[in-house]
C-alpha cells in the first residue's frame, strides 16, 4: 500500500493518505496545496451548508 503522511492544517493530526482515495488524487495533482483531514473537510462543508441555509 502506497501512502503519504501529512499534517492536517486545522487539527494538526497526522493524516495518512492512501493510494486510491480522493485525498490521494488531490495530493498527487497538487502536492503543495494546504491539506486538511477528512474530518475537517467534512466539518467545513457542513458549516458552509449551514450558512447557505441560513
Ligand atoms: Zn483535521
Automatic annotation (TrEMBL):
Organism domain of life: Bacteria
InterPro entries to which the protein is assigned, alphabetical: DUF2197
What is the name attached to this protein's record?
Answer: Uncharacterized protein YlaI
Q: Which species?
A: Shouchella xiaoxiensis
Amino acid at each position: 500500500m502506497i501512502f503519504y503522511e501529512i499534517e492536517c492544517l486545522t487539527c494538526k493530526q497526522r493524516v495518512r493518505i492512501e493510494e486510491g482515495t480522493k485525498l490521494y488524487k488531490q495530493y498527487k495533482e497538487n502536492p503543495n496545496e494546504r491539506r486538511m483531514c477528512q474530518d475537517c473537510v467534512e466539518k467545513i462543508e457542513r458549516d458552509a451548508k449551514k450558512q447557505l441555509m441560513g
